[in-house]
């Protein structure tokens, strides 16, 4: 099937001394892995193993771990011999104990955790802490030095790896893909990332498919398809597959060394050619990848209770269980541990012997100490242009229309231009940069594209800094990998379809949260989303494109991780964008529309408003400094427009009604200050929303979100929220708001229903609003567009 299946020639054979060192490292890593899963005490087996030396609850995964350590040992050899800058992305996240074991052998784990020292007592702590209360997780979590990828959820390793390689010309990212993980949709799409990697200025990704044959209780697809199909699959993806296959350790060490040497030579050749002659027209290079076919649970028990274990799914987690009631299992565990000959691997103090320590690279060349795997060490502040240069100029609210995201696109162009030399800012998205009105960035860059470029193509280039692929998973993974290795970026997506990455968002939020508790993890640039083509502007695409619920997913995360911004116009969007690109260790969600809409705040007012997060719009209110009869609040561009239109109607027909208009940009300000750092104190909230007056809140998303954020406030009982109620179809823009009761006519009716004393004038106005709703209903069905008074409405002050 793949190349290099035969044994290496004599000229490529490892010297006996190197073979011995590699095997010693591998045995030591395997011993430490088994010890973490099973042992509480007696870490060096200085006495016969007894049941009190074993953990009462056995947690962890053995099956993938020996293969991961085998790869780690061989990558260390490459680093030492060739002085290569390599980080290790571990896709099989269940192999956490193997990753910890290797970082411990390298010494990095003890440097960062001095209590887990390189001696017998430190080894005891290493074993005890794994999957133990008060200890460390079972996956390659942020606690593991050298990790940028937890892998608790499978599918994202390869996109993370490519994200790390973009704009890192000297970096090689070794990405181990589990064959179970390879069955996921996100991973399948991520193989296409090689079509975006430019060898002139990007690093390289070396995928290693860890083909050990089994998932939890089933064979894996790629392990059972014919060899010719497997090779054809990866050739079709654009790779050159190289095979390492077997189960006999010495032969496997020789094969792996030869294949890794071959792969590195191919990578260096591709990069040397591209950097001598930039790839303007030649074919995309065929990057190498390795298929490692080895037994699941390699070197573990061959059989347990007469049932096959090594090379079968039974080795996936804990091959030996129920040790307290099974003396034979306890004896099998001791024999298994002693099979690695720990007395040869660790000295009298319990430290790895000198031969093993000499096998590790030095300093920051250790994969567990590589600064790219702690990207905050490399993060440089973006050079930020003056956001005022993109401001929409006007003197009075509602006198100028502009496309908010187009203004944002011009600002992002300036950001891209200001950081062109640093090559540390990228925009990712699923084929929507231009659709979302960010196309001004194409004045200074193109979309990255390493395939054929036709004469009629637009904005495609080998050196493009915009990454577009119709896989939201891949976009998210690229950006996460880019951020985790110290750079900056923005993900632009249709609001309804950002849900595709809900789970990836969750994982990244958890990573950020866990990292904050680890002193040596340095802050990374924030993950910034622009959600546009949103629910209120998707009347043309219909119900399938109408979903504002990503905000609700985000609000489930810890308060200090997430920010949600709903700028009502272009200038506020510019202010928010400028702010989020300067932040770190956050997930910032911006929701903004792209159609031409009325502009409300000149830039100087927008700056003040966004800094506060919310505030009274005095120019739209008529209550002065006194108490209002009603507070009309809004968050989002469409709700703001409908609120102001409703206020205009009310002020015309009920001029005695005192109205206060409150606009919310930063959704988190609605929470109590003790729940979120941006939250208002109760006194501040009461001053804005009163303690007893009706509050009518027009909100971009699902109404209960506002109730959730404000339910503990004094005046919550008088809060009435209108938003998206899962009513949608293909219709007109204004009818979308009518279907969900967010339109100006329904808002006016709600005010009249909740404010006492409007009298006959209120009754008449409520009926007029009902007549307008009927008129609207008939008009759009007759004409296919909104009524002129809706299309031509403007704020009249």
UniProtKB/TrEMBL annotation:
Keyword Lyase: yes
UniProt similarity note: Belongs to the XFP family.
Single annotated GO MF: aldehyde-lyase activity
Pfam family, one: XFP
Keywords, sorted A to Z: Lyase, Thiamine pyrophosphate
InterPro entries with a match to the protein in the record: Phosphoketolase, THDP-binding, Transketo_C/PFOR_II, Xul5P/Fru6P_PKetolase, Xul5P/Fru6P_PKetolase_C, Xul5P/Fru6P_PKetolase_CS, Xul5P/Fru6P_PKetolase_N, Xul5P/Fru6P_PKetolase_ThDP_BS
CDD domains: TPP_PK
Annotated HAMAP family: Phosphoketolase
EC number of the protein: 4.1.2.-
Protein name: Probable phosphoketolase
One Gene Ontology term from the biological process aspect of the record: carbohydrate metabolic process
Sequence ranges assigned to domain Xylulose 5-phosphate/Fructose 6-phosphate phosphoketolase N-terminal in this UniProt record: 16-377
Organism: Pseudoxanthomonas wuyuanensis
Enzyme class: lyase
Cofactor or coenzyme needed: thiamine diphosphate
Domain Xylulose 5-phosphate/Fructose 6-phosphate phosphoketolase C-terminal: 594-795
Entry annotated with the keyword Lyase: yes
């Amino acid at each position: 099937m793949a190349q290099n299946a035969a044994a290496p020639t004599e000229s490529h054979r490892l010297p006996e001394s190197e073979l011995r060192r590699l095997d010693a490292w591998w045995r030591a890593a395997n011993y430490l892995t088994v010890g973490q899963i099973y042992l509480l005490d007696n870490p060096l087996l200085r006495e016969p193993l007894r049941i009190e030396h074993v953990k009462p609850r056995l947690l962890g995964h053995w099956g993938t771990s020996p293969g991961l350590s085998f790869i780690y040992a061989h990558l260390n050899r490459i680093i030492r011999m060739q002085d290569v800058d390599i980080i290790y992305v571990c896709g099989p996240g269940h192999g956490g104990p193997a990753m910890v074991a290797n970082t411990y052998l390298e010494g990095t784990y003890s440097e960062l955790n001095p209590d887990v020292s390189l001696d017998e007592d430190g080894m005891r702590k290493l074993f005890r802490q794994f999957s133990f209360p008060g200890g460390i997780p079972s996956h390659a979590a942020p606690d593991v030095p050298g990790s940028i990828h937890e892998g608790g959820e499978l599918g994202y390793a390869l996109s993370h790896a490519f994200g790390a390689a973009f704009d890192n010309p000297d970096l090689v990212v070794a990405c181990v893909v589990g064959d179970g993980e390879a069955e996921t949709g996100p991973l399948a799409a991520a193989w296409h990332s090689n079509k975006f990697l430019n060898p002139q200025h990007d690093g390289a990704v070396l995928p290693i498919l860890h083909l050990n044959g089994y998932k939890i209780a089933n064979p894996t697809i790629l392990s059972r398809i014919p060899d010719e199909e497997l090779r054809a699959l990866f050739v079709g993806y654009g790779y050159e597959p190289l095979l390492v296959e077997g189960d006999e350790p010495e032969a496997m060490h020789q094969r792996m060394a030869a294949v890794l040497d071959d792969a590195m030579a191919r990578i260096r050749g591709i990069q040397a050619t591209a950097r001598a002659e930039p790839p303007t027209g030649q074919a995309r290079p065929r990057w190498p990848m390795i298929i490692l076919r080895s037994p699941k649970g390699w070197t573990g028990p061959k059989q347990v209770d007469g049932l096959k274990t090594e090379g079968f799914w039974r080795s996936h987690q804990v091959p030996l269980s129920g040790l307290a009631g099974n003396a034979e299992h306890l004896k099998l565990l001791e024999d298994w541990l002693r099979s690695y000959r720990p007395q040869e691997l660790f000295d009298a103090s319990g430290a790895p012997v000198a031969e093993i320590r000499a096998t590790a690279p030095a300093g920051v060349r250790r994969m567990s100490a590589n600064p790219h795997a702690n990207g905050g060490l490399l993060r440089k502040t973006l050079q930020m242009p003056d956001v005022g240069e993109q401001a929409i100029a006007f003197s009075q609210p509602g006198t100028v229309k502009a496309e908010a995201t187009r203004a944002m696109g011009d600002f992002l162009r300036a950001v891209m231009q200001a950081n062109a030399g640093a090559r540390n800012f990228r925009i990712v998205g699923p084929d929507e940069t231009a659709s979302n009105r960010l196309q001004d960035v194409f004045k200074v860059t193109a979309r990255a594209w390493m395939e054929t470029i036709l004469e009629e193509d637009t904005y495609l280039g080998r050196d493009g800094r915009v990454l577009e692929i119709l896989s939201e998973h891949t976009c998210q993974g690229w950006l996460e990998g880019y951020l985790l290795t110290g750079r900056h970026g923005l993900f632009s997506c249709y609001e309804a379809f950002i849900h595709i990455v809900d789970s990836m968002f969750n994982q990244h939020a958890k990573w950020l949260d866990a990292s904050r508790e680890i002193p040596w993890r340095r802050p990374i640039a924030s993950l910034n989303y622009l959600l546009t083509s949103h629910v209120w502007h998707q009347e043309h695409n219909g119900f399938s494109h109408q979903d504002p619920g990503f905000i609700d997913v985000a609000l489930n995360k810890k308060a200090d991780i997430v920010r949600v911004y709903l700028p009502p116009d272009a200038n506020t969007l510019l202010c928010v964008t400028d702010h989020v690109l300067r932040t770190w260790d956050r997930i910032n969600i911006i929701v903004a529309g792209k159609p031409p809409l009325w502009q409300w705040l000149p830039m100087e007012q927008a700056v003040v408003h966004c800094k506060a997060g919310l505030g009274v719009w005095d120019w739209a209110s008529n209550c002065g400094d006194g108490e209002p009869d009603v507070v009309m609040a809004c968050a989002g561009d469409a709700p703001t427009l409908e609120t102001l239109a409703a206020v205009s109607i009310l002020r015309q027909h009920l001029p005695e009604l005192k109205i206060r208009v409150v606009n919310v940009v930063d959704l988190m300000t609605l929470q109590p200050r003790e729940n979120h750092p941006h939250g208002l104190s109760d006194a501040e909230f009461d001053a804005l929303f009163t303690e007893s007056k009706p509050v009518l809140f027009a909100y971009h998303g699902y109404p209960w979100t506002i109730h959730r954020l404000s339910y503990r406030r004094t005046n919550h009982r008088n809060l009435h929220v209108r938003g998206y109620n899962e009513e949608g179809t293909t219709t007109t823009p204004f009818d979308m708001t009518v279907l969900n009761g967010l339109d100006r006519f329904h808002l006016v009716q709600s005010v009249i229903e909740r404010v006492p004393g409007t009298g006959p004038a209120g009754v008449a106005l409520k009926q007029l609003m009902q007549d307008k709703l009927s008129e609207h209903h008939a008009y759009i069905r007759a004409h296919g567009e909104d009524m002129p008074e809706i299309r031509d409405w403007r704020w009249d002050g």
